[in-house]
Design a protein that fits this description.
The complex is a heterodimer of chains A (113) and B (691). With 113 residues, chain A is α/β, with parallel strands linked by helices. Chain A contains five helices and four strands. In chain A, helix 2 links the parallel strand 3 and strand 4. Chain A is globular and about 30 Å long. The chains are: A alpha/beta (113), B alpha+beta (691).
Amino acid sequence: MTEAELAPEAQPDAPSATLRIAGEMTIYRAAELKDQLLAQVRAGSKLALDLAEVSEIDSSGIQLLALAQREAEQLGLEWCITACSDPVVRLLSAFNLADKILAEIADQENCHG
Amino acid sequence: MDELLAVFHHEATEKLDEMEAGLMALEKGEGDGETLNAIFRAAHTIKGSAGVVEMGEIEKFTHVLEHLLDQLREGKIQIDSGLITWLLSACDHLRNLLECVATTGNDKDGYLAPYGAEMAATLDSLLRERVPESPAEAEPASEGEQPCTVSDSLAGNTHWHVRVRFGRDTFRQGMEPAAFLHRLGELGSIQHVATLLDALPAADDMDPESCYLAYEVELQGAAVQLTQAAIEQVFLFVRDECELEISMLAAEPVVEQASESVAECEDDEPAEATEEDASKGQPKQAAGKERAGQDSRFVRVQADKLDRLIDLVGELVIAGSSAQLLARQTSQVSLTEAMLIMNRLVEDVRDSSLQLRMVTIGETFNRFHRVVRDTARETGKYIELALSGAETELDKSVVEKLADPLLHMVRNAIDHGIEATEVRQASNKSPIGRVSLNAYHESGHVVIEVCDDGGGLNAERIRAKAIERGLIEASAQLVESDIYNLIFEPGFSTADQITNLSGRGVGMDVVKKSVTALRGTIEARSKLGEGSRFILRLPLTLAMIDGFLVSVQGASYVIPLDNVVECLELKTEETLSNVLSLRGAPLPFVSLRELFEVNGERPARQNVVVVQAGGLRAGIVVDQLLGEFHTVIKPLGTLFRQLRGLAGSTIMGTGDVALIVDVPSLVSMAASTEYNSLNYTASRESLAEKA
């Protein structure tokens, strides 16, 4: 249960894709997650992140999210997080990064549009 | 009581005094949020110390106090007179518990424990009557982001700005930045967090296992627990690797430690912003350092060590003067000079060590606010207490022994002196009675006055009572001042009602005894309808004396130098009975030879030492005048203590004993009505003739 997978309906080279991360987003998977996130960002034109099944997240995970977001912005891509589990929301709020990173969480149409 | 308990007792008593002073200030409307905070801190300290010495009852009870004070200072309940009264009673209860500790070594007393429970129950009902106020609404604009200084300063809050830049290896060391944030949130209330991601490098260069995080936190909390040290403590485990910067935001000067705010780190992040903020924080920390420094200027010394030192200094003085005497006899100039220098140094040591025992009377005076408040309430009168001369210094032991007599006199003044409010208003007096305590130095003595603007002493009633009690003859002619002094006789009380407060006339004579035991005098003055004034005169120190040496028939006597006005030769042709003419004015005198019934031939030439005490002057006739003499007073043994005219003894350089003359009693003897009524009128006439 610790995989990042592409949403079934998306195709690898489709312009927008949803990256679903499940399980732990912690230091132990940081290296692996970084590669996947960056690959995903650089692959498509829009990136949607589904974090509904993230069971645990730590600061390294937050760093990665920030990194991915910045990269997306620099590449001119749209970025949004479509769903978020509680641990993610909590940690983001603690760091007061919720507004910055969770923009348009409810607005799924934008992501898939 | 072992030493640890003794320290606890002493400190807890000091804290209780602070609390009472603060509560009295609040009651008068003079206090503010900081006062409440100080009272809370005092209670908190007592609770903590009680825990350390395992005085569970005190700890438990203080906890109740602390809880109430906490709610008060956070504004959840408003302070009012009923709560202040409860708090003052709670302080009394704590004093009783401390008393119990002092006498039995623990705080478990069969009576006190249920009393404590009763007080807690009373508090519950007091609180139920007062609906707790809802916490102050945050102003719409600030939304908790900016400190609301008015309500915050009332609650004794501090605001801090904390910036942390974590080191690269933070994750590798198993540390989690969010955990520190959480811990800060427990220490105080987080007003704002800003996470800084500026250290995050380009995506390809970023090492996912390195930490690039930094954040800034605005923290607000109670000054008691949110200190710089506490904040630094939070980051203890990452201190070496991170860049930590703490600075205070609001103007509350409650910095408790002056430690450095910037911890250097191995990280090579640009530090310009760091320095700027650090310099902003410095001035406030400097103030804190100063305060800490001031506290360390005092040293706690045991009283008996001080007494021992003064004893030794006294012996040094005696040994010094005997050495000087011997040196003079050798007539070796260099030796004599060396002795002079040494004696001057010894005098300085003596003066300095006596100074150590001096305390200001202000501490004692301050206790009277509480007494006046309570007594005024009990008697239903309105009383204003005026204190002056609080900085007047006296010997520590004198101050301690004075506390009870002064207390009694103040209670007396309120109970018997000040009339009931209606009576005062009927006589066109202010409804508020005024009691004043005044202290000042006067010619080597400390004078303390207790005055009131009440009804004054009724000479007629005193006289009648004295006759009734058999103290004086019905036919005795007494001047007003003598009548007033009758109130100091044992068993004397003119109160129509024996009140609970001042008791049954056990008061003034005990006061006089205490004052006399301190080698002082007490005098009563009054104007009927206007008020009374009690004047206490006490020697500045009990230990040493600057004296004037005289001799009668070869035996030495010391007259306290402070009382000496001048010396002259006795011209027998200008005397009549016991009065002599001093530049045309009559001066009563006492002859030591006659007084002490010294056997021997009266010498051809006698001398008079003119002394003054208590505003009166008299002469003391002696054989020879021998000069100034500084010496230590040795108390007279119990056998001799009742002798009138003697205040002590001392050992001279030769080893002989010299008796110290008690000037006030000699003066009153000389000037007393006994003598005067016999000779006065006749003397005046004869002197006038001769002049």
